[in-house]
Specification:
Two copies of one chain form a homodimer. Chain A is α/β, with parallel strands linked by helices. The first copy, chain A, folds into three domains: 92 residues, 3-Layer(aba) Sandwich (D-Maltodextrin-Binding Protein, domain 2); 77 residues, D-Maltodextrin-Binding Protein, domain 2; 81 residues, ACT domain (Alpha-Beta Plaits, 2-Layer Sandwich), CATH 3.30.70. Chain A has nine helices and 15 strands. Chain A starts with 6 loop residues before the first strand and ends with a strand. At the A-B interface, strand 4, helix 4, helix 8 and strand 13 of A face strand 4, helix 4, helix 8 and strand 13 of B.
Amino acid sequence: MKPKRERIAFQGERGAFSEEAARKLLGPDVAVLPCARFEDVFRRLKEGKVTGAVVPIENTLAGSVHENYDHLQHFDLPIVAETSVRIVHSLIVRKDVKFSALRRVFSHPVALNQCLDFFAQNPQIERTPFYDTAGSVKMIVEEGLRDSGAIASRVAAEIYGARILRKSIEDVRQNFTRFFLLRRRKDAGLLPNSVAADAPWKTSLVFTTRDAPGALFRALAAFALRDLSLAKIESRPLRGKPWEYLFYLDFRGRVDSPPAQNALRHLAELADWMRVLGSYPQGA
Amino acid sequence: MKPKRERIAFQGERGAFSEEAARKLLGPDVAVLPCARFEDVFRRLKEGKVTGAVVPIENTLAGSVHENYDHLQHFDLPIVAETSVRIVHSLIVRKDVKFSALRRVFSHPVALNQCLDFFAQNPQIERTPFYDTAGSVKMIVEEGLRDSGAIASRVAAEIYGARILRKSIEDVRQNFTRFFLLRRRKDAGLLPNSVAADAPWKTSLVFTTRDAPGALFRALAAFALRDLSLAKIESRPLRGKPWEYLFYLDFRGRVDSPPAQNALRHLAELADWMRVLGSYPQGA
């Protein structure tokens, strides 16, 4: 059963890369609810204001988004799908603006710093920090700026009726962000149409162990002994508890399969605490 | 033997949190060379323009800085010390400016977003994105702005002769960044004075394994069988090689101790590739 209409919460302005991830998962017509903070995104879903939430969980340059792992633990909203989006920075202007007129380009400093080669080749253009990538497109359009551009996703250009002057001006092409789609527990069975029927499944969990030599080795035995392969493992020190660690672990398999159930029962013997964050088809 | 005079490269403007880490490691009088990009930091050290480099490697909210792990692999500049700095955001103004006069506060958007409670309590103050935390202090001082503040480290206030109006206005106190001190290989024995003589040692390495069930489990046996405890483990998918992983691993022990040498010889049998990034006293 599908919900009446999908509406997805994400952090950022309309046209953020999270919206691109939501479209990749749920189609180009998905309705969205932009939120100021990640915590708001989780809260809106918990309250039932939306049918799902899309949050970034890791980036190939910047690492895991620990804040969202924390929210996943606290809000009990299961992961039901994943996808990866390549972070492509486009140079965007109002429809009537030419490249030769550009004197300033606005964007979030992280995006500006990922396009340093472009600015080195175009010293007449000043890098100008702004709050948000997509928000900088909104601003140049609304303010009618004719000597200014913005750096953001192609979805932002489309949403604000702007024009892409240059595609893919980022220095490094290997910049991907992985996103999770979350639902409320009662809706966890509602898979997006984008999921291939024969996709292999993954399961994500967090657990803690006391810090003793070999503690993680013994914990991983639970998976190795069932031939379950790992897709991610990461330790995170627990501040204030200098000898304890939280681990993020993804393995390949459905949580309800017998090997996975056996592995989790085995891990529960060894871990101080564990929680399954979701089991979902591997994403494109 | 000490180098004639310490001079440390870091990324960012004078007063960046990396400079705070450099002072914590090498004392308040350390000379510094601010650089625009992380790659420049490594390059200046490689060229011998500085005696060391200080780079962030992971943050408790934002995860590992993969870019610096990549540079560590490519530049062959060993880690010789580590330290952790709590990211404390101070509200900074020109010496003659009062809180009641403030209408705008400049900083990097990441820092502004870490102080949302402060802005919620002070709606008369506009959040204004700027390129850099420390750079925003420099700007309000140089431009003589009397209705504006900046959010940055206390070191930035000191360097630019500004005044701290409010200390620690960040929403979350548990925000720490871990930094490495790097040297050229011929200077790797030059430990900073801040290192305690009896500090336990750690060793950091990277390695790859083919993705097979139990591959990491077998790799970790190399350490568990010698009672070497892990301080960090993290997988990083290799883009374009969907079934291969790079692993970051820190273990407790000196690289030249017999158990560590045995563990590394054992790991070399199992890993496709490995590199020791450095062995150093555990930092405060």
